[in-house]
Design brief:
Layout (H helix, E strand, L loop, with lengths): L1 H5 L2 H51 L4 H15 L1 E6 L4 E4 L12 E7 L8 E7 L3 H11 L1 H38 L14 H71 L7 H30 L7 E4 H18 L3 E5 L5 E4 L1 H17 L6 E9 L2 E9 L32 H11 L3 E6 L3 E7 L9 E2 L1
Parallel strand pairs: 6-8
Antiparallel strand pairs: 1-2, 1-4, 3-4, 5-7, 7-12, 8-9, 9-11, 10-11
């Protein structure tokens, strides 16, 4: 039982209020029981004194016969007795009607003279009322009834108080339990202007702010996780990049070193310098080209693009790039069809933009079989302005598509120089378009392979104007 009381605020409030009301009510009743009869007696005595003074004042102006009737009426009205006496006689006024009035509770003695006589009479007025004792007796008689009423009213009041006080606190307690489990999908609907209402409002505000903070922390954690994954991916790409660089440089350097050593030593056919010197030069040029591409990528990744932006015409730059690649297309009997009816002004770095276009269109020509077609169009695709470069007669294995922008990655696992370059071309394209905030996509089509470049700006430094 003690444990139940100890763990229940409602029961404790009920007991506190019930005990306080009962004790206070009994104390008040006890005080009234003690003070009221005495106070009534004191008041009665004062009233008797006052009435007696008035009586004496009246008697002073009356004759003896008139005074006798006046005293008699006074005793009847004030429930008292009076004794009027002189040296010769004594008159008694007032009658005792029951045993309840056998004791005079107070007496007042004074002297009086009448208008028709100079004799001084002694007047003694006594109160026969025992009302104060009756009040005390009645209050003691009704004490059990009053105590029962006090207990009943105290119980009802304590129950109501416990419900009114504890109910909102219990609701707040339930909400606090939900808060411990980080559940903020609630609202404390206690509406009042007292301290409990302020507490409820504060809880609502705290929950709202905690929810916002938790969402921010969740987003920050998600962003941090994404950044960590990106860092891991970048680190992996960096390791792969250096591994690929070392592989790409190792082979031509080994070949070049062997050719030069054999020519110096004059082994066998290597004495024919006119045959092997051009091959050594070609290997040197390949190494030089690869190093230049690596340096260009490094510069692009660290450059401040915004200071180099210029407005260029999409149509004009595409036409210029096609004219540059046209001799390669003619050698393979490939037709380049370009259809750009609507021009667009781009805010780009001209050199990087031209290099990216040259790599894309050049790849389309190089990887198309002889006699096929390359299409360059500008149209609305997926509700965005899109430049599409599509070559026919070729396709990329689906497993290789996600890796096409990885540095040194080639679908041709033999890495034959006759069928492709170093594998940095599309990585350079990716780096350039990422710097400009442009999105892109490469995928197989029914005719061949298409590169989609979306020219709607994703970043504020990229300006587009139709």
């Amino acid at each position: 039982m003690r444990k139940k009381i100890k763990n229940s605020l409602s029961i404790k409030v009920f007991l506190w209020v019930f005990s306080a009301l009962t004790i206070c009510s009994m104390l008040i009743y006890g005080i009234v029981l003690t003070v009221l009869p005495k106070q009534y007696q004191v008041t009665s005595n004062k009233q008797l004194d006052t009435n007696t003074e008035i009586l004496v004042s009246k008697l002073q102006s009356m004759r003896y016969e008139e005074a006798v009737n006046e005293i008699y009426n006074f005793c009847i009205q004030n429930n008292s007795t009076a004794i009027l006496s002189d040296d010769n006689e004594t008159l008694t006024f007032g009658e005792i009607k029951s045993e309840a009035f056998t004791v005079a509770t107070s007496s007042i003695a004074t002297t009086v003279t009448f208008s028709d006589s100079k004799t001084e009479y002694a007047l003694v007025v006594s109160s026969l009322s025992q009302t104060a004792d009756i009040i005390l007796s009645l209050m003691l008689r009704f004490l059990p009834v009053v105590f029962a009423i006090i207990l009943l009213l105290s119980s009802v009041s304590a129950f109501i108080c416990s419900r009114v006080i504890v109910s909102p606190i219990a609701k707040i307690s339930q909400i606090s339990k939900r808060m411990t489990s980080l559940d903020m999908t609630w609202k404390c609907d206690i509406e009042s202007n007292d301290e409990i209402g302020v507490l409820a409002s504060s809880l609502n505000t705290m929950a709202s702010r905690l929810q916002e903070t938790m969402e921010e922390l969740t987003n920050a954690n998600r962003q941090l996780t994404d950044d960590v994954e990106k860092c891991k991916t970048l680190e992996e790409q960096r390791r792969n990049f250096f591994s690929a660089v070392s592989h790409e440089l190792k082979t031509p350097l080994t070949i070049l070193k062997g050719q030069i050593e054999n020519m110096i030593l004059g082994y066998g056919d290597y004495q024919n310098h006119e045959k092997y010197l051009p091959e050594a030069l070609k290997a040197t040029e390949d190494i030089e080209h690869l190093v230049k591409e690596i340096i260009a990528i490094s510069k692009m990744e660290s450059m401040d693009l915004e200071d180099t932006l210029q407005e260029v015409s999409l149509k004009q730059t595409v036409n210029d790039t096609i004219q540059t690649i046209l001799p390669l297309a003619q050698d393979k009997d490939i037709q380049i069809h370009h259809n750009i009816n609507t021009d667009m002004v781009l805010s780009v770095n001209p050199n990087l933009w031209n290099k990216a276009l040259s790599n894309i269109i050049g790849n389309a020509v190089r990887h198309s079989p002889c006699g096929n077609d390359v299409f360059v169009t500008f149209q609305s695709y997926d509700n965005r302005n899109t430049l599409i470069i599509e070559n026919t007669g070729a396709s990329i294995p689906e497993a290789d598509l996600p890796h096409m922008f990885t540095p040194f990655y080639r679908a041709d696992k033999s890495r034959n120089k006759a069928t492709g370059g170093s594998g940095l071309g599309l990585y350079i394209v990716k780096t350039i378009f990422d710097l400009h905030g442009m999105t892109y996509l490469i995928k197989n089509t029914e005719q061949g392979v298409a590169f989609f470049l979306y020219l709607n700006a994703d970043k504020p430094q990229i300006g587009l104007r139709l």
